[in-house]
Amino acid sequence: MVEVKRNAAVAVNAQPAPKKEKADGRKQRSARSRDKIKASIVALINAGNYSPRAIDISKHSGLSMRTVFRHIDDMEALTREIAGDMQKELLPLFLKPYKSWSWREQLDEKITRRAEIWEHILPIRLSGSLRRFRSKFPMDEYRQLLELERAYLQSVLPDDLVADDVLFQALNEAMGVGFWINLRMDQELSPDAAEAVMRRTVDALINSANS
Fold first, then answer.
1. How far is the C-alpha of 119 from the C-alpha of 125, rounded, in Å?
2. How far is CA 31 from CA 24, 25, 27, 28, 73, in A?
3. With contact defined as beta carbons under 8 Å apart, do 181 and 119 qualify?
4. What are phi and psi of 49, to 5 degrees?
5. What DSSP state is assigned to residue 211?
6. How many CA atoms lie within 13 A of 180 on its CB side?
7. How far apart are CA 72 and CA 135, in angstroms?
């Protein structure tokens, strides 16, 4: 009789486990759905749809409209996650060691590297430009990107060029994502042509400082 009671107690204690497993399963499915939605948003933007609608995301991801609406209800948080994923992807490219030693050769490497990065994020930046004045976070993220650009340029240039504030600002602008967007979208240049313009502009600015 005692044995029966012990088994019964064990059975009672074991009952909550399925509920926990069910909750964990829901969390996992929700996380997978969220990842699908983020991947679809990025894919749609890269395809030229800079402001994807819920119906576009639903069709691309294969998820129901109800599921999509549940996740994009807080678009600010979703945007943060996408931006965070992109920053993790791009940071190793920014921190990649230089192959050369002189500042001029490192600057040449930086121009090539920035052209590759700006081209990679061009659709996302265009999409972000549509939202950054309507939302605090995209504007904050945009400013962080600008500060990152400035810091890495300062780390390469000689002190006398950094000290020349007008020259430094001009170089930073010539190598910035805004200049790249202008060349690629407004002037409709190819990536190679846009990089050539960026490189020529930087060379002209540095030569003017040395003349």
1. 10
2. 11, 10, 6, 5, 15
3. no
4. -90, 90
5. -
6. 23
7. 15
Q: State which amino acid sits at residue 13.
A: N
Identify whether the C-beta of residue 70 lies closer than 8 Å to the C-beta of residue 37. no
Is the pLDDT confidence value at 109 over 50? yes
> Are the beta carbons of 198 and 179 closer than 8 angstroms?
yes
207 vs 65: CA distance, rounded Å? 57
pTM of the entire structure?
0.63
Q: Determine the residue type at 83.
A: A
Residues 147 and 155: their CA atoms lie apart, in Å, by 12
Q: Where are the alpha helices (DSSP H) in 15-74?
A: 17-46, 54-61, 65-72
DSSP secondary structure, 117-166, as one string: HHHHHHHHHHHHHHHTTT-HHHHHHHHHHHHHHHHHHHHHS-HHHHH-HH
**Closest alpha carbon to 117 in 153, 158, 89:** 89
Tokens in use for 52?
A: 């994807």
Q: What percent of the chain has pLDDT over 90?
A: 27
Helix or strand or coil: residue 103? Answer: helix
